[in-house]
Amino acid sequence: MPAVVARTFAALLACLAALAAAPAHAAPDHASAMFVFDEARTLCERDGGALWGESLCGPIMIVDPADRTVVANQADPGGVLVERDGAFVGTLPPEAMLANTRVEWSGTAWTQLLWPVPFEPALLRVFLLHEMFHRVQPALGLARGEAGNRHLDTLDGRYLLQLEWRALARALMVDEPGARLGHVTDALAFRHARRDLFEGAGDDETALEINEGLAEYTGVRLGLARDEQRRAFAVYDLARFLDAPSFVRSFAYASGPAYGLLLDAVDPDWRGRLGTDADLGALLAAAHRIDPAHLGDIAPRTRHYDADGALRTAEETRERARRERLSAWRATLVEGPVLVLPLAKPGFQFNPQTLAALDGVGTVYPTLRLTDAWGELVVTDGGAALVHADRTQATVALRPGGDGRSGEGWTLTLAPGWALVPGERAGDSTVARDPAPASPRNR
């Protein structure tokens, strides 16, 4: 690792350790919100729309998930927010989604930020620009329909992904072109081997790398001023997601900045070639004139990045535990009595690092806030909800003898006019609209 990148990386880790020890901000107070808005404006005005051809400046709302209070940087066309000391305040209605992302509400598209936000400078800047990019992403034609990426919860999928990350990290930490090219070639070899092993993996991974990988790349590229800072943060991104419970929806946050910065170094115009089927790895391979399909056996490359086999051993141990966990989820969320919640216009709030694929059925959410016309389902630690692959329904396990409105780690709040009714299978329940009450004339 070049000394300057090593020093920058060490300084970044020290800042993050200090941040972890610092007390959290209790509420989105006016001064803190105005600081965030000023920082966002400074960052987007400094870019001036140069990176993507469109300004990232725009409406921002900070929302406290505890009580849904809002502090925004501008008025809403619907007139819900009230001006107060240069900001605009109000309360987000129950049906509005809560997430760090683009949210359409009260007549406009917002960058929504959930409180508390990180206040360590590097983290705050990357975070702000990541979410501000999401607001303009559809207009740039860079929003993709996402798939499951369930292969990234398997032994070989996870192992090959981490080998790819190790190669990318080394590529970012060297300056000598030949050494960097060697590590890039290794990363592309592992990437190709994984996608060759799992049918459809390339399309699934590419969609999320465009959706979330480009957003995180934008945060790193525009939020940090110097190249060594950007590379150090990209290496940090590759490291911090190693402890994620699942890579199914978190991997792109790590790989996106790495591929973006490596492309910047060899092909500064790559962003102009992001068509509907764009793949960051394919763009990097083309820039280096590498054909990943003809790189040969990956065994020698594997030994270079997992010399003692410790990574493989750790993944084999994890795989045994995963199979046991999936067997338990299948017994409770598929085979046992369940509450079935139909999904028409669902709203999801969840931790993408915790998702797990249940083969042939859908995705398990260990924590989740799910809303639809029938009301709200909240799943907390110790619970689990299964969202079927076609997203037509979600299920949670019913507790024997329970009231059907709560269970192991979950609670259901029904909207007015909805009730619990028997499901299609014996022992199951579902929700349905209450029959209209009889009119006085017919009583």
From TrEMBL:
<protein>
    <submittedName>
        <fullName>Uncharacterized protein</fullName>
    </submittedName>
</protein>
<feature type="region of interest" description="Disordered">
    <location>
        <begin position="423"/>
        <end position="443"/>
    </location>
</feature>
<keyword id="KW-0732">Signal</keyword>
<feature type="signal peptide">
    <location>
        <begin position="1"/>
        <end position="26"/>
    </location>
</feature>
